[in-house]
Each structure stands twice: as C-alpha cells, then as structure tokens.
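Journal club prep, notes for RB
We'll compare a predicted complex against what the paper describes. Inputs for the NDP case:
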Amino acid sequence: MDIVVFGAGSLGSLVGGLLAREHDVTLVGRNPHVDRIERNGLRIDGELDAHVFPTATTDGTGLDADLAVVTVKAFDTDAAARTLATGSLDAALSLQNGMGNEATLATHLDCPVFAGTITYGAMFVEPGRVECTGIGELALGPRDGGSSPLADRIGTAFGAAAIETTVAMDMPRRLWRKLAVNTAINPVTALARVENGAILDPPTADLAAAAARETAQVARADGVELTDTEATGAVESVATATAANRSSMLQDVESDARTEVDAISGYVVDRGEELGVDTPTNRTLATTIRTWERGQDLR
Ligand SMILES: NC(=O)C1=CN([C@@H]2O[C@H](COP(=O)(O)OP(=O)(O)OC[C@H]3O[C@@H](n4cnc5c(N)ncnc54)[C@H](OP(=O)(O)O)[C@@H]3O)[C@@H](O)[C@H]2O)C=CC1
Ligand SMILES: CC(C)(CO)C(=O)C(=O)O
C-alpha cells in the first residue's frame, strides 16, 4: 500500500516506521526530524527495534495515497484535513485521542474516513529516532460501526507490517470507552502532576471515576451502550497497566504545550449539553486545564 502518515511526531513516527517495514510510506512532519529521516532513515528502539527508510517531507500538500493515517494532535486535525484534501486519497484513518477527529476529517476529505484506537506507546527521543514505550494493539473500523471491505483491507495491511490489529465493527463504543479512560486519567494526572497509577488511590479515584461515569452517561445519551461499570473498569485496568506512565496531558503541561482537553473533557461537556446531560466533573476539569493554558506562553 501507498500510505501517508500525517503528523510524524511520537506516534506517527512509530506507526509509520512500523508500516514502512512492509509498505511505501511517506511521513509528513517537521524539521529537523524530517531532514534526519531523509538522510539517515528512522530508528525505532525500546520495546521494538527497526531501522527503516520511509520518504519524509514537511509539505503535506498534493499527496496521492491509498491511505492517510492521521496522527497530529486533535487541535491540528482541521488544518491537517485541509492539507490532505489537496491530494488524492482512497481512505483516511485517525489514530488520535479525543473525539470528533473523524468528523473533522470527513468534512474536508472526499474518501471514507475510518476510526482507530491504539494502545502502543511512543516517545520522541531525538530527530530521526523514536522509542516504542509499549507494544499494544490497534483497532480500526467504520466510524459509525459495522463492517467494510476497505477497513478489512487496511487491517490486513497493518497486520502484514506486524502491527497487532483488530478490524472492529463497534468503533463508536471503543471510541467512547477510550474517551472515558482519557477523561478520567488525563486531566486528573495533569492537574495533580502524578503518574497514571496514582489515580487508583482514594480520594483521587473517586474524581477519576466520576469523570468516567459522566462520559458513559453522555455516550448512552448518544446511543452507544457503555455502562458506568464498563467505563470505570476500563479506567482501572488502563491505570493499572500504565501505572508508571505520565499521561500525554501531564507531559503537555510539563512542557508548556497545548493540551487535547477540548477533544477530551471539553467534548464530553459540549456533547452532554447538546443531549441534555449535565457533566459537572468534566466541566470543572476542562475549565481548570483551559485556565492553565490561558495563563501560559504555550509552545
Ligand atoms: N504518543 C503516544 O504514545 C500516543 C499518542 N496518541 C495520540 O496520537 C496523537 C499524536 O500524539 P503524539 O504523537 O504524541 O503527538 P506529537 O506532538 O508528538 O506528534 C504530532 C506531530 O505532528 C506534527 N504536525 C502537526 N501539524 C503538522 C503539519 N501540518 N505538517 C507537518 N507536521 C505537523 C507536530 O508538529 P508540531 O508540534 O511542530 O506542530 C508533531 O510533530 C494525539 O492525538 C495523541 O493523543 C494515542 C496513543 C498513544
Ligand atoms: C491511555 C493513556 C491515559 C495512557 O497514558 C493515554 O492515552 C494518554 O496518556 O493520553
């Protein structure tokens, strides 16, 4: 397959690098990372080891591909979609955290847009090098659920590159369950400046669980069957499995970078308002993170 990976930061470089073991990959990213990849290739180390030579560019306009994998931060999705729309794609797949990315992509792109969730961990080490901090799995499928031969083809292509992949018929449920995890872990760890495992202890556990329960309530109002128990259970198991991790939102706050709060807690608040579900915990968490953002000179 010809695959464009739009957003060659931590995750995009890892996924693009793994795909490059089997497919023709073009990474769209920033310099000096792109420059280094063009000259010396991309090294992946940590839990996986690879040295690959994908094409890399800082200019994402006019690209033609079978598939675009979108891995920019949620707040960059609109710009990424507009740039990708200048080329020609057969399909697009979001692997981003937060909600609403697929809808944004579909607004601009004239091709099927698939939803994805990924539990691989990636960390940018230096230009030309990323670390795989955890081997997980990838699920992808139609963004409204159901099956599609094109999703099957994409799943087969990821599998051929030895990426653990499930083609799922229940992506809306999976996206909401991941959102419940992110609404519980990300803002709480970012505000308290603690690793993921710390949210398992009372009284923080109550705060995180309240955020997850509200997210599940909004999901149900949106027609997706996600019980409170399933949402809080997912939070507990992810926080346990990633106990020593610093969440992406904590890392953003620590490096004075903009967070994805609008697509995480903010999404739950906004969708809850539309559906008549009050979300006081998510509202408080979103407001506090946004207040922090406004007070910073963000990168
Ligand atoms: N890292 C991880 O382990 C995981 C991340 N995710 C999700 O994946 C997404 C990406 O995360 P992550 O990789 O950590 O983020 P990064 O910030 O490391 O990667 C995004 C990259 O895209 C670049 N970018 C944005 N717009 C453009 C553009 N127009 N042209 C070229 N490059 C562009 C950014 O550059 P710049 O910053 O200069 O704008 C940045 O280098 C997020 O939604 C995150 O929540 C999900 C699971 C795991
Ligand atoms: C699952 C979790 C919470 C892992 O840290 C994550 O997705 C993030 O940090 O954004």
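Talking point for the session: The CA atoms of residues 30 and 58 lie 5 Å apart.
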